[in-house]
From TrEMBL:
GO BP field: dolichol-linked oligosaccharide biosynthetic process
Top-level taxonomy: Eukaryota, Metazoa, Chordata, Craniata, Vertebrata
Signal peptide: none
EC number(s) given by UniProt: 2.4.1.141
Protein name (database record): UDP-N-acetylglucosamine transferase subunit ALG13
Predominant place of localization: endoplasmic reticulum
Gene Ontology CC terms, in alphabetical order: endoplasmic reticulum
First-tier enzyme category under EC: transferase
Amino acid sequence: ALQSRGYQKLVLQVGRGSLPQPQPSSSSAVAVEVFRFKDSLAADLQNADLVISHAGAGSCLETLEKGKPLIVVINDKLMDNHQLELAKQLHRDGYVLYCNCSTLVETLQSMDLSALKPFPPGQPEKFASFLDK
């Protein structure tokens, strides 16, 4: 699905997850780079044309603040799924696309990233002013 959309490289942060085994294929033109953890993902986000992430608030906001298109993949197995609530709201507001693992390929195939709205910049001074009052 990535290759058919013109993507040439996939960078995966797997954390404590199992490392994917490369599948030899002469038809795949998508290079895969895998890492566990980095002190910062800022450079990776800056270089990304598309970010696919879980729906953690920090991950979503950091990606959106960098102006990158975002597909949020929901973990259906979480109890009291706050990630789903966040993903649905960001989607309703027009900032992200969201799916679950079983619909990710379909989402990649049908996505229209031009329909996503830019995320407005944060205004921390408003919060500081509120606290001062």
